[in-house]
Design a protein that fits this description.
The structure holds three protein chains of three kinds. By secondary structure, chain A is α+β, with helices and mostly antiparallel strands. Helices cover 36% and strands 11% of the residues of chain C. Classes of the chains: A alpha+beta, B mainly alpha, C alpha+beta. Chains A and C meet through α3, α5, α6, α12 and α13 of A and α1, α2 and α3 of C.
Amino acid sequence: MALDSKIPNGPISDKWTDYKDHINLVNPANKRNIDVIIVGTGLAGGSAAATLAELGYNVKAFCFQDSPRRAHSIAAQGGINAAKNYQGDGDSTFRLFYDTVKGGDYRAREANVHRLAEVSANIIDQCVAQGVPLAREYGGLLDNRSFGGTLVSRTFYAKGQTGQQLLLGAYSAMNRQIGRGKIQMYNRHEMLDLVVVNGKARGIIARNLVTGELERHSAHAVVIASGGYGNVFFLSTNAMGSNATAAWKVHKKGAFFANPCYTQIHPTCIPVSGDHQSKLTLMSESLRNDGRIWVPAKLEDAQAIREGRLKPTQLAEEDRDYYLERRYPSFGNLVPRDVASRAAKERCDAGYGVNKTGEAVYLDFASAIMRYGKEQARIKGFDDSDAALVKKLGTEVIENKYGNLFQMYEKIVDENPYQTPMMIYPAVHYTMGGVWVDYNLMTTIEGCYAIGEANFSDHGANRLGASALMQGLADGYFVLPYTIGDYLAKDIRTGKIPTDLPEFEEAENNVRTQLERFINNKGTHTVDHFHRRLGKIMWDKVGMARNAQGLNEAINEIAALREEFYRDVKVPGTMDSFNQELEKAMRVADFLELGELFAKDALHRNESCGGHFREEYQTEEGEAQRDDENFAYVAAWEYKGKPSEAVLHKEQLVFDNVKLVQRSYK
Amino acid sequence: MAKSALLKSSLGKKYWMALTGLFLCLFLVGHLLGNLQLLSGSKDAALHFNQYALFMTSNPAVKILSYLTYFSILFHAVDGIVLTVQNRKARPKGYVKNNPSANTIWASRNMAVLGTLILVFIVTHMVNFWAKMHFDEKMPLQTVTINAGGTDMEFYLTTNGDYLPKSRVDQNVIEIKNRTEFYDAAAGVKINEGYKDLYKITVAFFKNPDYGLIASILYALAMVVLGFHLYHGFGSAFQSMGVNSPKHSPFIRNFGKAFSIVVPLLFAIIPLYIHFILKV
Amino acid sequence: MNLKLKIWRQKDAKDAGRMVDYNISDVSPDMSFLEMLDVLNEDLNNKGEDPVAFDHDCREGICGMCSLHINGEPHGPDRGITTCQLHMRKFKDGDTIYIEPFRAKAFPVIKDLVVNRSAFDRIQQAGGFISVNTSGNTQDANAIPIQKHNADLAFDAATCIGCGACVASCKNASAMLFVSAKVSQFALLPQGRIEATERVLNMVKKMDEEGFGNCTNTGACEVECPKGISLENIARMNREYLFASLK
């Protein structure tokens, strides 16, 4: 099957407008006869559910949490990009488009990214109209901040809780429709299979997580908005429940899975403290504006610190290695996420790590405190040679800027970051890969759509900060409502899809069989045991830096672990009750397949780009080396019964508007 | 919708609670000012107090206020009971281990108990004094003893400032009708009016050799209860009425705390003063 | 450290439930409270016993999914945090820790420590929104300037995570702090004023119907709220409701 991305013809800036002008519409009376299922209620799913319901479709929305408001979009901190040019600093739709394609290391589809940039401004208008309290200046107008990888200030924010505020905006829009009866909300439900009838997505099998009951739900289209698969690493900044099951089930039913190896590792997370660790906590990227990253220059000092014999503050300036400033003099501590993450790993692998586990580097605010302190002392007319006073004043400045983050750090680590440098280490944060979709956001299964982080489309091999929120809301509010209408226009005479079709029967039976298998298995190890082991393989061999040998090992080890899992996993309780271990087992089963495809994709991509770094493909200075000639394509994998047998389809990427160059931060 | 909301909704009930509560705070101030005359120690203390008592029972404006007070007490109590019952129902199963002192003050959690105790006190108090003042046929009228030429003579004090010798009543020259009115027995004409001697009743109550000590202490304790009730209730009423802002709240809170200490304290001093200090 | 846990176990909504004692050893002070429960569950699972069910998701204090009434307080003894951010260093070796579900008539227990908080969703559905459709043609975001002070207050109210600690801590199981946070957020913004009257009447009506208790201004909610939502929001709702009722 050839991949058709269905990109409209014409100049890039006219594609979306022309497209909207020529698609089929569904008249309001007919919309009432059409059902749409949406799985996931984060920014993408929530906004899509609300908008489709406003339009008149009957929406059934599903989330595994106890309320749609809990989706993990809520944890996004920094902000949301939009080409509003409120600051008059030269921003434009084209610049946002250009920055996003470049930031994605030239592995994104131009037409999708341009559309994203076009609708970005509408998102801000829409959210403000909904009452989302974005940050304002004293003049009453919206404030912006700047983010990595761009030269303009286009990021809108609500303190460090932008994701929360935007999600609650979408949630409130959903609530309005739930109140009107246009959305039927299914909380604590998990989609466990897609039902395909005559080649079209026509429903899902969902498990009611409270009663354990399997339910059949039919619809004329199914939208997957279930987020990313970062939890394949076990430890990530994702929520505990974040999972790939909906996306993976769709993949197994025929949707291609694209670029699974593109994973974003965020450089500033709180390091792992021990084996009990269940998840990782992100510290906003903004900290790198004032913090200097370093490790001891001498191995013996690093060891002394790890053993607690030496304190970082006792180390003389010349015994510290500010390795980012050393390697990247022009960008210094502000290099992009992928570069900063790899550099930290390189130092720690070489034995310079500074915590018990040897996997942490320092993020030090001492010099920023002194710098700000001196400035304040001068402004206030105090003696700027009084070190104690300068430190006090400087600490106040830092507290104003990052107080909540410092407090969060202290709660978790129990160290005062004003006095001793913070410890940070990279952690899995976001997955750029996902279900392959065409320009309409439709997967390779007719009538099955994927939006938000669940699809692969807009970020290429690396996502810029503050772009995830933008994409989720763009897909849900402004793109899918048009493109799905074009498809549903053909379904106005179909009528209600019955749930007693043999396809439903079969899908339900398959799900039941799998659930029974887990419950009846007389294994000896818990689900988490296997998940942890999978995470370790992924992190060690498919993590920040990969090589062919490690990837081959990972593929074999994951396949073996999967077999062991089915043989030896122990799931307590029953199928027909609230059973959190059973939920986890179903999710980990899918991660165990996805992880293998992930490694396979990483192995086949013989280049380094964005979040995918292959040690064999680097410049002499150790930087990522792309191979545009051979790898400027989307790798879309077709499921063939086993991850190892997945078949590769290539969607060639055409760059008409952006010139491909090597990224450099020297 | 709107009308029933003000009566039936949870918030509506809170408004009434707050309004009646605040009105009762005003009542307390008025009542206290009158009672403080008991402490004056001057030789006219009894007269002033009885004049005040007469005013409070006869003035038409005060009458309206007093009906409003009775209503407020009843409504505050009934509304409070309804709210408490509803609140109990909102958590049918409690915690095995609860640590409410970590997040609330004791008084705020025990308003219903405190309120019930206060209601019991109010009833007792009204039986002790209010009922006597209003209904007791044997309520004595105020008299003064004046030493005229070496002999003590007892006189009734009248509302127009005259002195009626008690002996003339004893001799049936003057008759007392309708509890306070002096009539010329022969002519059957009203000639003057006396004061009900609430002062005497009050002093006698707290000086009573049998129960005076207990009564004084119980009255003082009741005021401690009232203090706790006010400590939370005063500020709470403003919050319920929607008055809470960084600008005004500190003042309201501090005023409420002062109010809850000063008013009950002054009330409590009175019975203790009468019992232990006042010389008759 | 070694701890004694007393945990509420309840098989399902119909079960009567009871406190069960567990001993747990080798707890690291760096563990979060939920990680400590993970260890207990792994242990129970290995012994063939049913693990303790509890709600959790983001484990960074923002999703509002985790709950738990710990030693008599929602989200435990620390302030300004959710249970997932509570660390074991707050406890001492040999401590006994009581762990119970949030208790309220409106929050029925589903299993063990998991409760159903859908009542919160239903209150939001009754009016916690601004009725604006997604058209892409709403007016420009900067068309209505908003005083920074009000925008900031609206934000502070909007940071509510809907965890239910306010209800759990309130002796009356009142949901006033939760409801008032949303009412306040919109009341403070010009976009929200248009439907302000209907919103507050409808949301309060729904709140009452769901069986939450009445507010007696004890202030427990404000103390226990992991996001520090202020009682001023309740006062604002009281005002809004009063004026709305008089209209």
